[in-house]
Amino acid sequence: MTPTHTLAAPRVAATLSRMFERAEQDETTAARVGAELPGGFAPMTPQEHADAAADIYMPISAAGGELLYNLVRAVRPATIVEFGMSYGISTLYLAAAARDNGAGRVVTTELSKDKIAAARRTFSEAGLDDLITVLEGDARETFHNLDVPADFVLLDGWKDLCLPVLRLLEPRLQPGTLVIADDTNLSSLQPYLDYVRNPENGYQSVNFPVEDGMEISCRL
To answer: Contact at 8 Å (CB) between 163 and 195?
Structure first.
């Protein structure tokens, strides 16, 4: 039977299944490298965080990924911007939606060289690499080079950096742009939540109860 959408394509479904299976070892891996999940690292620079978490998937949930897929299908953004690729699970959902829309691309960013190398292999295996551009480095620097509007934004990197990254991207946000932040249960995301939930900052925001919570904010 021909798959009805890209997420159901055998190579994509098998890739996601394999990655989620490996991600189930995150707590064991975090204990081995001396980190707690989520958000339990000692004070470090973003690069030190990335290096310490190089073996940890920290994935979006399957339900969260499906929500992202549906939102991208509905909005049909030309450029999807992701902060915090990790091993690329969420990136696959975003790219699958772009593929099924027949237009659009994903621009994502990651600090860990190991994760970038692994993710690029994964994107190729899934047949979605032609839709994904990976920016290597600190998003607060790499996004300065973004030369197009950010039509859909996923913020799933270090939670204390979500607000600075959003502020950086704001000049590239058109009215109606959706901005999604994952893991709203984490206290380190609270400054971001306070910001997007304040109408004076130009957003209409709602919390969506999927797994650890997603904040869906519309730029007004």
So the answer is: yes
Q: How many angstroms separate the CA atoms of 137 and 155, rounded? A: 15
Of 8, 6, 181, the C-alpha closest to 81 is 181
46 pLDDT exceeds 90? no
Residue 56, sorted as left (phi over 0), alpha (psi -120 to 50) or beta, turns out to be beta
pLDDT band with cut points at 50, 70 and 90 for residue 37 = very low
Which residues are CB-neighbours of 165 under 8 A, at least 6 positions away? 83, 139, 140, 143, 155, 157
- What domains, with CATH codes, occur in the chain? 6-15+56-219 (3.40.50.150)
Please state, in angstroms and rounded to a whole number, the distance separating the CA atoms of residues 133 and 198: 32
d(CA 130, CA 106): 10
State the first-to-last Cα distance of the chain, in angstroms, to the nearest integer: 43
pTM: 0.86
Rounded Cα gap, residues 46 and 137, in angstroms: 10
Angstrom distance (rounded) from CA 203 to CA 220: 5
Amino acid, res. 58: M
CA proximity to 6, closest of 79, 82, 66:
66
| Band (20; pLDDT cuts 50, 70, 90) | confident
Residue type present at position 207: N
In the three-class reduction of DSSP (H, G, I as helix; E, B as strand; rest coil), residue 58 is classed as coil
Q: Which helix (H) or strand (E) holds 101?
A: helix 89-101
What does the alpha-carbon distance between residue 163 and residue 169 come to, in Å, rounded to a whole number? 10
Beta-sheet pairing, 203-208 with 214-219: antiparallel
